[in-house]
Amino acid sequence: MAKTISAAWNRLISSPELQRSSHTVSAVGNTVYVFGGELQPREPRDNDVHKVTLGGNPSLSVSTIPNNTETSPSPSPRVGTATTTLHDKIYLFSGRGGPSMAAIEESGALWTLDTTASSWSLLQPSSPSSPSEEGYPSARSYHTLTSDPTASTIYLHAGCPASGRLGDLWSFSLADKSWKKLRDAPGPSRGGTSIAYTSCKIYRMNGFDGKEEIGGSLDVYDIASDTWETREFVADGTRGPGARSVAGLVGVEVPGKGSCLVTLFGESDPSAEGHLGAGKMLEDVWVYGIEDGEWAKVEAKEKPRGRGWFDAEVVKVDGRDAVVVVGGLGEGNERLDDLWVLTF
Question: Is the dihedral angle over the CA atoms 43, 48, 54, 58 positive or is it negative?
Answer without folding.
Answer: negative
